[in-house]
């Protein structure tokens, strides 16, 4: 009888521990090798996960799916923002309208961020087709822009942002 009670108690404790872990409102942390990042540049993934601002934005998400979407979206945003900055500089230097690479093909697109990234790319292509380089610059500058917080030099969170680096470009 005592053995049966111990087994029931052990089972109850195990179930409670399992339920407590599963019922947590806080999303689990992400690692660079998480499936959500498959297809993305590993160096950019590592940079985003080490970036205090990006980590804070990811951690603020309330569910795993929202966290995954935010994390994947931020990595794509880092890639896109730097590409747009390089395209802008090239356009000014050469006078030739740049082309943008497609949104990185990921193994497991996370929504809504992946669809948003594709929409942003279409918007950026329209800005390029306008024939006005300042349209790209406007995307990179301002308090809500990617250039306002993404480091110009990968991994250098204390250095200039992309927006800062454009101050020397006219």
Task: Provide keyphrases for this structure.
170 residues; mainly alpha; 7 helices; 57% helix; disordered N terminus
Task: Provide structural commentary.
This protein has seven helices and no strands. It has 170 residues and is mainly alpha-helical. It is globular, with a radius of gyration of 22 Å. The model is unreliable at 1-26 (pLDDT under 50).
Query: What's the count of strands?
Result: 0
Structural class: mainly alpha
Helix content: 55-70%
Please give the count of helices. 7
Distance between the termini: 84 Å
Number of domains: 1
The main sheet comes to: none
Keywords: Signal
Protein name: Lipoprotein
In short:
57% of the residues lie in helices and 0% in strands. The protein is mainly alpha-helical and 170 residues long.
Describe how the helices and strands are arranged.
Elements: H1 2-22, H2 42-50, H3 52-59, H4 64-94, H5 113-129, H6 134-140, H7 162-165
Helix pairs in contact: 2-4, 3-4, 4-5, 4-6
């Amino acid at each position: 009888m005592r053995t049966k009670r111990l087994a029931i108690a052990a089972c109850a404790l195990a179930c409670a521990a399992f339920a407590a872990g599963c019922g947590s409102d806080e999303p689990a942390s992400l690692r660079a090798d998480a499936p959500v990042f498959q297809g993305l540049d590993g160096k950019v993934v590592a940079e985003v996960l080490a970036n205090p601002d990006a980590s804070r934005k990811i951690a603020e998400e309330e569910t795993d799916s929202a966290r995954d979407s935010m994390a994947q979206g931020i990595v794509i945003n880092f890639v896109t923002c730097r590409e747009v900055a390089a395209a802008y500089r090239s356009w000014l230097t050469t006078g030739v309208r740049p082309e943008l690479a497609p949104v990185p093909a990921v193994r497991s697109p996370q929504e809504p961020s992946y669809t948003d990234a594709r929409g942003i790319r279409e918007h950026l292509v329209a800005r390029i087709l306008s024939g006005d380089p300042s349209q790209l610059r406007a995307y990179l500058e301002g308090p809500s822009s990617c250039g306002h917080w993404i480091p110009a030099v990968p991994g250098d969170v204390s250095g200039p942002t992309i927006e800062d680096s454009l101050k020397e470009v006219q």
